[in-house]
Amino acid sequence: MWTMSVQVIVCVRGQGTCGSRNVLFGVVPQRGFCMTAAGTVIDGKVEARRKGKDGSGVRKRGVDGRVRSFEEIPNTGRSGWVNLVKFWREGRFRQLHKHMERTFKNLGPIYREHVGTQNTVNIMLPSDISELFRSEGLHPQRMTLQAWATHRETRQHSKGVFLKNGEEWRTDRLQLNKEVMMSTAVKRFLPLLDEVARDFCQMLRDKVEREGKGEEGRRSLNIDPSPDLFRFALEASCHVLYGERIGLFSSSPSLESQKFIWAVERMLATTPPLLYLPPRLLLLIGAPLWTQHATAWDNIFSHAEARIQRGYQRLSSTLSRGSTVGAAGGQYTGVLGQLMEKGQLSLDLIKANITEMMAGGVDTTAVPLQFALFELGRNPEVQERVRQQVKASWAQAGGDPQKALQGAPLLKSTIKEILRLYPVGITVQRYPIRDIVIQNYHIPAGTAVQACLYPMGRSAEVFNDPQRFDPGRWGDNRVEGKRGRGADGGEGAGFRSLAFGFGARQCVGRRIAENEMQLLLMHILLSFRLSVSSTEDIDTTFTLILQPHTPPRITFTKL
Ligand code: HEM
């Protein structure tokens, strides 16, 4: 169907594409250049990255031998306000992922959309996405969540990396990377995540024994595990970030923590409509939507503030006793302690970033875990394969969680496969810093371009049998789809698994999230057999993150 992926080299020296307006960075320099199809503008040279199918290196020209203009990109209607009304009327905010999938089917692999104040170009093929990321520059930029930024500005809070750009972003980000992304940091926090995952499983085993059916030692319990998974994710985040256990697996978890979970839920649910409306105007007219959103953020901030204060006092007293803070007497005290010890970020910036990580770290891991338990439950053969690998690896690892994960690559593939089918963030956005050509259309620098992960993950052009849950597809050199070749180095290799984003701006919590989810699945698979009563697909809803419409029920049977 999509035959528009014509590879073209067109010299446009002095033609319309030169000197195009760059909405972010001013005007693109008027220099002679060539363009490659799905290709970056390259100064005076032709980039011969891909050869034609016959290996001759000769590229096919577009139908009429020219790069098409930006205006020619298929679009979903020119009036942003008419589209906004349609979105409201048809409830598309909550079904944005399905709307995107449908629109690609109708318009082909690239389209423009104008909704309210937002203008985007949407793409979904790995080779096109790779082109976008090649042009992201040293300070990659996503579309700003203006509502979040307005909250920080009106409450005089500092912004963390999520909301910053340019050199300011990079300075903070390099400091955070040392504490959450680098392998030395992972080694430090992995035992904390493992401890929480084990405690969760113990809590679940007790619950199954207490409330389950069947003979003793083999009991089964059918539950919606989502409230427990949210508690797990919050407990894990607090342990890694503040170095503090907050006792959420006890029989009476604190109301304060439950309020935090509700606040994050409310903040996420009120964000999508605010993407298309000017928050300052809503603030001015006292719109209830804005008030709900800002109040949810206030609750998130006060939860984080209380914990950071406590952490600060604890760490200051340790410091005054003369120990090294981050390692308080040899003991790791979490990301907060590490950042304080290093002293490279001001306390204000530490607060801003820790609060962002708290807000970004709970639902994003709790929700994929729900999907993972469901898919493993409805695919018993896959579940057994993963369990066998996990068991063997666990037996070899002698209790070392890092070794155990390294020996069970299917766990990692399971997470990748879950995020392919249910990407938490349904798009990753960038503003290319130079003019690019995608699908033979000219895209000026500074255009908001979205890589649409949900439609890509479910496209037969990109993945074989895309509806099938098959972690094994990530493990070998399998060639996947017509357009998404795997490890064979073909088109778009490396750009099919983008749930955590890409490059320097990718998710800063990625290592925490991956390890947290893998460890929990590992301990669950060692303790329980999972099953589901219905193998029907789960209905999904978009509330800034992709969620099940109704959380699935899972049967946990003790092994
Ligand atoms: C499965 C879990 C998660 C997924 C799928 C996910 C996904 C993403 C994505 C797609 C981005 C944008 C990346 C880009 O623009 O290239 C992002 C950014 C971010 N995420 Fe996550 N995330 C997850 C968990 C977490 C966790 C656990 C934390 C905190 C500990 C976190 C904190 C952040 C922050 C602060 C950013 C902004 C980074 C920056 O702009 O430099 N995320 N995440």
From TrEMBL:
Region feature (Disordered): 465-487
Pfam families associated with the record: p450
PROSITE patterns for the chain: CYTOCHROME_P450 (PS00086)
SUPFAM superfamilies: Cytochrome P450
InterPro entries in UniProt: CYP11_CYP27_families, Cyt_P450, Cyt_P450_CS, Cyt_P450_E_grp-I, Cyt_P450_sf
Obligatory cofactor(s): heme
Cellular-component GO terms for this entry: mitochondrial inner membrane
Keywords: Heme, Iron, Membrane, Metal-binding, Mitochondrion, Monooxygenase, Oxidoreductase, Steroidogenesis, Transit peptide
GO biological process: C21-steroid hormone biosynthetic process; cellular response to peptide hormone stimulus; cholesterol metabolic process; cortisol metabolic process; glucocorticoid biosynthetic process
Chain sites annotated for binding heme: C507
Localisation: Mitochondrion membrane
Record-level Gene Ontology MF annotations: heme binding; iron ion binding; steroid 11-beta-monooxygenase activity
Domain of life of the native organism: Eukaryota
Basic and acidic residues: compositionally biased ranges: 467-487
E.C. number(s) listed in UniProt: 1.14.15.4
PANTHER family noted in UniProt: CYTOCHROME P450, CYTOCHROME P450 11B2, MITOCHONDRIAL
Similarity remark: Belongs to the cytochrome P450 family.
The name this protein goes by in its record: steroid 11beta-monooxygenase
Lineage: Eukaryota, Metazoa, Chordata, Craniata, Vertebrata
